[in-house]
Amino acid sequence: MFSLMNEIAYNGSKFLQITAMRDLKITVFTCITAATLAVLSAFAAPSTNAPAGPSPGPYDGQIAYWTARLLDQYNYEQQPFDTSISKKFFDGYLESLDPQHDYFLQSDIDGFMHYRTNLDNLTVGRHETANLAPAYEIFQRYLERLQQRTAYMDDLLKTDRFQFTGEDSVLVDRRYAPYPADLDAAKQLWREQLRYEYLQEKLNREISATNADEIVPLTRSNLADIADTLTRRYDWTLHMATNLDTSDILQMYLEALVHAYDPHSDYLNNEHSQDFSIEMSLSLGGIGAQLREDYGNCKIDSLVPGGPAEKSKQLNPGDYIIAVAQSNQPPVDVVGMELDRVVQLIRGPKGTKVRLTISPADDRSTHRVVTLTRDEIKLQDEESRAELIETPDGHGGTNRLGVIVVPSFYAPIDASDSDPSAQSYVSVDVAKLIKKLEQEKVTGIVLDLRSNPGGSLEEAIKFTGLFIKQGPVVLVRTAENQVLVDGDTDPSVLYDGPLVVLVNRLSASASEIVAAALQDYGRALIVGDTSTFGKGTVQQVFPLAPFIPFDPNDPGTVKITRDKFYRVNGASTQFKGVVPDIVLPDLWSYSTEIGEASLENPLPYDSISPATYDKLNLVKPYVDALRTASEARVATNLDFDYVRQDIAEFQKLQADKTFVLNERAQLQQHQELADRAQARDAERAMRPVPDETIYDFTVENAGTPGLPAPEPLLATNTDFSVISTNANGSVTIMTTNNAIATGIPARPAAGSHWSEVITQTQAVDPMLDETENILEDYITLLTTDRSLIAK
């Protein structure tokens, strides 16, 4: 049976998929969130009043069994599910529940240790059904500790009076710290953490953008509000944990199993599978509303233009959704329900109806029912987009550069499942943008792949083919040690002009394939961080439904790392990533928490024989000159000076994971940071306005003749409050929408105030600015040297 069902799953998933790294987490050590709080317990045994936890669903054992069997047979390194995997599985599950080592006591861990070397036998040792006792026993202990710890924190907030005048400190990053040894150690740790969060809340109220240079003393009412805020946060964390059901627990448990093999294999239950499809397709069936959680209430944050919710004129930002009903079915109360579950109730196929019971923002005492027909919602904010940047050429004319921002390599998972007009392919969208930029006579293009997490392999190949003639783009080595060559078969080239690719440490997977291929061909200059992310593996999707035919619900899918990527020059993109031709200063280059090397159980780097391809000579002759010119600019650029200062501060934070619980010292540090930021804003405000015009293009307007209205470089604020005046003549203001800005007075009025303040509206992006400078230098060098040919 296993072989037959495996073949069914394999044939149903023939496409290779580079998964978007949606779960990439960047840890900034500024606070301990409610999700990492610990629970108070007696040393010997948990409380007998602990909440009752869920139990496995009727098919969960089969889901776990087949997930393990598929991993055992199909993982890239052909690693069997043995004791070594069992240990990683066990450790990973504990880490997923208690990443900061402050929930469980050491006695809890000791009591679970008999599972650590036995999960392989418990998972695949029985006939097609895993024993899930470890998952639920460990999770139940987690719930017990959380309940006890929440009660302890609530009591402290009612009775304790925190002082912050000493020199004691708290360890903020406890990932590598031991678990509390006993009850006394746990009490000390948890009280320190509460003091830390209390001080953070206090500082946030004492220093804010609205009071600029002043420290606002807090009243008794302010302090009571801090305690209420923290109590509400802890209680909500407990509520969220106790509402987790069997599907949530199975998701966490099997994620720990698949990640024991490598960090990019995944188990996706039905809900997560839908999210993955949405991220890849940039579309979903829904009402077109952005929702957020507000301590148990589902709040409408914004409406998608043109979506059913916006068109109805019956919903507004700030409204609460208190119940959801499908068509003519009875409504389901969603107050207190997790946001993910509310979203699942609201989503649905195009053309179906959903009824929402609303508590309006303007009158919470009333309720009304709104009936909407779901439609295909296109996530246009995640589509590729372009800018045309026009500057004087010094001879009465203009220079025009193009910048194309590619957020991901999106494509429909199954093109037959949705309206063709709503489907998005990144290669098609970028082709439209390139054609528009060429119509507007740009002399060069920047491809901005920063923070692009990857996506479709097929789209990455087609995308690369827009810039090269036919040839290999990527080599793929399978678990069976076969090397496959995948490439562009279209001999045409859409764009053959000067090309620069901008990347950073968060550029991963498919974006690394594109950057590597264009670099190896000598087709484009690569600029950015010291390296890209380093994800060079391919995941294949195995639906579990064929293995569990009697489950009335979708049992989910397993993504298994099956293959490994290699550049056409034979080097792997795995682990090391792509090293740019020109490196610019950037904070992410110095993070120890970003990149394949920072993940658990990554596959190693290696290399294979290169492919045969026609290498161009469009980059190598100019790299040294371009790098030298760039380094000279960067060395004297004030924005890069600011980046270097931020890097130095960031490295200190990474090295020291402690936080001193002294209010005066923290206020002084906060004030120094605020003063530094204000000084930077004031310096930037004194700079001359850039002599450039910027036009924004979307995929939608790329086919429209002519240019859109240019983006404003300046904004005039005529209704504002002056917060402070600065020695250089600029002012810091608060506008009517509570935005803070620093600018130069347009004209003085009577007294010490001004009737207008001019502020720059363009975000500061020194890396992109310098990349544009590099492109201009590159264009000049290419224009003077026309002797280049393929070799």
Q: TL;DR?
A:
The protein has 791 residues and is α+β, with helices and mostly antiparallel strands. It contains 19 helices and 27 strands.
> What is the overall shape?
globular
- Strand % is 15-25%
* Average pLDDT for all residues: 84
How much helicity do the residues have? 25-40%
Largest sheet: 7 strands, mixed
| Backbone CA Rg | 28 Å
Q: In DSSP terms, counting alpha (H) and pi (I) runs of 4 or more, how many helices? A: 19
User: What is the number of beta strands?
Assistant: 27
Task: Assign the CATH superfamily of the largest domain.
Answer: 2-enoyl-CoA Hydratase, Chain A, domain 1
Strand order across the largest sheet = 20-17-16-13-12-11-22
Question: CATH class of the largest domain, anyone?
Answer: Alpha Beta
Q: Report, as a whole number of angstroms, the end-to-end distance.
A: 54 Å
CATH fold field value of the largest domain = 2-enoyl-CoA Hydratase, Chain A, domain 1
Q: What CATH architecture of the largest domain would you give?
A: Alpha-Beta Complex
Instruction: Provide the structure class.
Output: alpha+beta
Q: Which runs of at least 5 residues are low in confidence (pLDDT < 50)?
A: 1-48, 718-723, 733-740, 744-755
When the domains are counted, the total is 4
What would you say this structure looks like, in words?
Helix 2 (60-74) runs parallel beside helix 9, helix 3 (83-97) crosses helix 9 (246-259) and helix 16 (620-636) crosses helix 19 (766-784). This protein has 791 residues and is of the alpha+beta class. The strands form six sheets. The protein has a seven-stranded mixed sheet, with helices on both faces. The model is unreliable at 1-48, 718-723, 733-740 and 744-755 (pLDDT under 50). The protein starts with a helix and ends in a 7-residue tail after the last helix. The protein is globular, with a radius of gyration of 28 Å. The protein contains 19 helices and 27 strands. 35% of the residues lie in helices and 19% in strands. The chain has four domains: 22-263, no CATH class; 284-378, Roll (Pdz3 Domain); 380-653 and 768-784, 2-enoyl-CoA Hydratase, Chain A, domain 1; 714-761.
